[in-house]
Structures are given as C-alpha cells and as structure tokens.
Amino acid sequence: MKAVVFHDIGDIRLEDVAEPVIEQPGDAVVRITASAICGTDLHMIRGTLPGMKPGTILGHEGVGVVEEVGKAVRNFRPGDRVVVPSTIACGWCSYCRAGYTAQCDVANPNGPQAGTAFYGGPALSGPFMGMQAEFVRVPYAAHNLVRLPVEVSDEQALLCSDIFPTGYFGADNAEIQPGDTVAVFGCGPVGQFAIMSAFMRGAHRVLAVDCLPDRLEMARKQGAECIDFAAEEPVDVIRQLTGGIGVDRAIDAVGVDAVAPPGQDFPDEVRQIAPQIRPVGDNWHPGNGPSQVLNWAVDGLAKAGTLSIIGVYPETARTFPIGKAMNKNLVLKMGNCHHRTYIPDLLDAIHTGRIDPTSLLAQVQPLTSALEAYKAFDTRQPGWLKVELLPKAA
Questions:
Q1: CA of 83: how far to CAs of 42, 161, 211, 330, in Å?
Q2: pLDDT tens by residue, 102-114
Q3: Which residues pair with 183 in a beta bridge?
Q4: 9-56 pLDDT per residue, tens
C-alpha cells in the first residue's frame, strides 16, 4: 500500500509499504477513506518533537471502513464505517473509565508514565503506524473505533478524529461559561475549532490572535474579533477591547516554535519540507524562555481567569511565566485531548444539524500529492488551513 513515511528530520517520502495485519485479538484493520495533515505532524518532521523512528508512517487522523477484526472485537464487523480517534485508549483502566482517555494506563507499551499513545508519533508514544496510508491497524478496536451515522460525511467525520475534539477540549478546559470573553491565540485548524467551540459553549465574545490574513478572515467569519499581532501589540488591544480588564479565558492553540539544534543549519531538501526551521545559538534548548503566546496569554487574562493550553509542547519545554500567573490567581489547565470521550457528542451535534465543521476544511488532495501538500501546509500558503488526503484505496 501507499503511505507517507518518516525517514529523518525534513525527510518524508511516499512509499510502498506492507499492509497492516491483525496482531492481537483486540485489533481491527481499517481501510482508510480519508486522512489529514496536522500541525503536530509538522513538529515531528521539524524535529521539535524528538524520538521519531525512521520507517514510521505519519498521520493520526482517519476515517474508513472496517476490513477485518480480531476475535475479541465484538461490536464491529467488516463493512462498518468508522472514525478513528487520534489518541489510543484501552477502555477499561481507571483513566479511561473516568474519561481521561489520553492518559490511558494500558495502551502505551512504554508504560503508564510514558504519556499519551497515538498513531504515527515518536517512539515514546508507542509503535503505532499512522493513517496517512491506505490501511491502518487499530489496537483496542472495540473502544478506539466510533461508528458513523450514514448521514455524516467522511469530511465531517474526519474533522472529529482530532482537531474538532481538540478545539472543544481547549474550550472545555478553559471553563468557558455563557457571557465570557475568550482569547484564542493561533487561528490554525485547532484554533479555528477552539473559536467555534467557545461560541458553542456560550462565549459572548472571542478575540482571535494571529498574523495570517486568510486565517484571521476565517476567524472573523465565525464571529471572532480579530487581532493581527504583526500590526499591533495584542495585549494592548485585548485590554482596550475589554475596558482594561482582560479576557476571562485564554486558549493557547499554538505550542512550541520550531528551531534547529545549536550550530546546525539544514540542507535545501530539508527546508523544502520544513522551511520554518531556523538555526539559533549554542544556548539552544526548547525550554529557553516561555513562548511568546504564553506571555501574551498570561498578560491578557483578567485576574482569576483560566488559561487552557492545547498547543503541543515537548517535555524539554520547562519554562513558564509562573510568577505573573500566580500573582493574578490564574487557573492553568493543559494536556492532550481525550478524543474518544468527546467524539460521540460532537458527531451527534453534526448528525442533528446543530453544526457543520466542513466550513474549516480548506483542501482535498490525493495521497499521492501528500509531499506537495505538506510543503503548502507548512509554509501556511493562503487557502491551506486544513488538508484532507484521499488514499487510492478509497
């Protein structure tokens, strides 16, 4: 089958690889009918999420049709149409039963302290091949597949595999209440869904911070008040727009910036796939200084406000403006989305017509054009907010 395969930082290839098979009784093999490129994939090909093994198939978003199930899978049969949650959970440990499926104690074979298991990620996330391919093996399939109503399209369902639940998780973690004013930092795919979710939860105002015109325009179409940080100082504008108070809730939908290790530059072929990588000095460390977004968020929040962090940060990021946050009595909530917990309710909202997420799906490309799509997505070309990939097997 065809798949997008990681080989090294900046080196991904479309290759022919072996099709997955049932390895455990709880497995299923799903024929992918739609997958997607995520900003997290960029962190891995840039090297800001370390530990990627050569040969790993990328991609953690997918919709498809069940091809085969193991003997322990009793709730799905071949031919069932499903969405695959991005993060992997067993369904029976205490964390899964409490809804904290991103912190499953069982799914990650590296042990309960290794963190979230997901498809197509670094070694620490487990040996799970990704979904930018024609087929994928789904472990713990009885829990990690969600059946799709016939009325929900592949495009709608695909956005429920990761970015819609993640945006909603950000709004939920932010404790948004009716009447709140919310700042969303970063208007990429997850940020757009955080804006949508903030309004779903009753926010009266959403302030959207970015610098790219097409992303700000999409946020504006959702009803957000836009702040272009390339043209104005966002914290000053936030205070002006809130009578000097600040926002009640803030969501960091950006995460770590990509940088190169000390003294290292990258050859042209790397920059073609990851042009945002930049070399810095010998004091390089992903945790050297809080991100600009975190400083803006803490400064822009009202006293006793809530900061929700859903942008990706590596474990090496170890700094935060803790003094400012403590002095303002801020609540901090962060982490990986519990996709399996949120997906059923979001699918129901789509199925009943309360919301249609496909307005945020910008591009549909064949899997065979994945490398070109990565380049366009990475360079944030206008109109490339979210990319759906259609495998040949579809």
A1: 22, 6, 33, 36
A2: 999 999 999 999 9
A3: 207, 250
A4: 889 999 999 999 999 999 999 999 999 988 888 878 887 778 899 999
Residues 100 and 174 in one domain: no
Q: Which residue is associated with the tokens 């795919």?
A: 189
Which residue in the block uniquely carries the two structure tokens 């900003």? 39
pLDDT averaged over every residue in the chain: 88
Do 155 and 234 lie in a common domain? no
pTM of structure: 0.88
Report whether 63 contacts 84 (CB < 8 A).
yes
Structural domains counted in the chain? 2
Q: Which residue range is the domain that position 91 belongs to?
A: 2-162+337-390
Closest CA to 232 of 288, 300, 290: 300
Q: What is the pLDDT of residues 133-167, one digit of tens each?
A: 999 999 999 999 999 999 999 999 999 999 999 99
How far, in Å, CA of 167 to CA of 310, rounded?
8
